[in-house]
Write a structure and sequence with these properties.
This protein has 5 helices and 5 strands. It is α/β, with parallel strands linked by helices and 147 residues long. A 5-stranded mixed beta sheet has the order 2-1-3-4-5. A hairpin with a 5-residue loop joins strand 1 (20-24) and strand 2 (30-35).
Length: 147
């Protein structure tokens, strides 16, 4: 999760919403990481999780990310949760819940829905206060800068 937080800091430095993600192998080796790049790339799909999935797929030369774990600072949205399922990621670990857009546990249960052909193991709340504080400070600054 510390690596995901580093990625979130990188996003913040770019003026992006500070969310970071990283994907590790079954033996905890770092395979790929990513941070929000939606503004930088003019791409609404360039969320941290999607960027990390794309980077990982390229790194391992496979579209299936079997036996991997993704760490992300904020609960994934609907798009990202669906991508995690489609990538066949084994486990999701996230920091803070997302009350507005969280699609893993808060609003929906996409990652462990028994109607889907793949389900992830889910661990939440890891470094949640730190993850939440980072994003809250970002939006607080953004609001004060626009005043």
């Amino acid at each position: 999760m510390r690596r995901a937080l580093q990625e979130a800091e990188t996003a913040r430095g770019l003026g992006e919403v500070p969310i970071g993600a990283c994907i590790v192998s079954a033996n905890d080796g770092l395979l790929a990481s990513g941070h929000n790049l939606t503004i930088t790339r003019n791409d609404p799909t360039a969320h941290a999780e999607i960027v990390a999935i794309r980077n990982c797929g390229a790194e391992i030369a496979n579209y299936r990310l079997i036996d991997t774990t993704i760490y992300t600072t904020i609960e994934p949205c609907v798009m990202c949760a669906g991508a995690l399922v489609n990538a066949r990621i084994k486990r999701l670990v996230y920091g803070a819940a997302d009350e507005r857009f969280g699609a893993v546990e808060t609003l929906f249960g996409i990652c462990d829905d028994p109607r889907l052909n793949h389900r992830l193991e889910i661990t939440s709340g890891i470094l949640a206060d730190e993850c939440r504080r980072l994003i809250q400070q970002f939006f607080k600054k953004r609001r004060s800068d626009s005043s």
